[in-house]
Amino acid sequence: MSRSFRRIGVFGACAVTAVTLATAVPAAAHDDGDGFDFTLYAKEVGDGNAPGGTGSSGPPPKVGDTFTFADDLFKTKGGDKVGRDGGTCAVVRTSDSQVDATCSGTFVLNGGPGGQLTAQTLTTFSTGAQTPAAFDIAVTGGTGDFKNAHGYIRVTPDGDYERMEFHITNR
Predict the structure, then answer these.
(1) Any long-range contacts for 140-143 (C-beta under 8 Å, 24+ apart)?
(2) How far is 160 from 48, CA to CA, in rounded Å?
(3) Alpha-carbon gap, residue 136 to 154, rounded angstroms
(4) DSSP string, the chain
(5) Residue 39 pLDDT class (50, 70, 90 cuts)
(6) Would you say the pTM of this structure is higher than 0.90?
């Protein structure tokens, strides 16, 4: 299984729990008056020992297994670090070839725009796939510039990173 079991699409495959971003959101964040569109790249940090993650050769996940993940976030792959995220996921269904996990968490963004974004997802991934499929994470709320936020985050594997395209509406 790939490292994305642990992330399940980051929030990484997952959604993301309360942690703080260290610096500003990319200057390329586009605000059309009703919301924001911007892209970040997530690179996983941690020990690589979550169930099914890189560094783990243990048994396949079972219903009820939980795991956490954390990422550093960048404007571009290998570019300026703009913060971090983290998340918690729980396995809710398994079969011979697939695992479903529900994940939830929070992004905290500083700068323009600034505030918190909460998000969650139920995602299915193949236990045999070398590269996980792209998936969407629902934005469920926020604070600060995101106080009426909803929308989605499209997560796509991109080498050692995951590309995260934020589509946030504030109406």
Answers:
(1) 141/117, 142/115, 142/116, 142/117, 142/118, 142/168, 143/115, 143/116
(2) 13
(3) 5
(4) --THHHHBBTTTBS---S----SBPPTT-EE-SSEEEEEEEEEEES-S-STTSTT--SPPP-TT-EEEEEEEEESSTTS-EEEEEEEEEEEEEE-SSEEEEEEEEEEEEBSSS-EEEEEEEEEEEESS-SSPPPEEEEEEEESGGGTT-EEEEEEEEETTEEEEEEEEE--
(5) very high
(6) no
Residue carrying the six token digits 């499209």: 154
pLDDT exceeds cutoff 80 at 65: yes
As a whole number of angstroms, the distance between CA 103 and CA 5 comes to 11
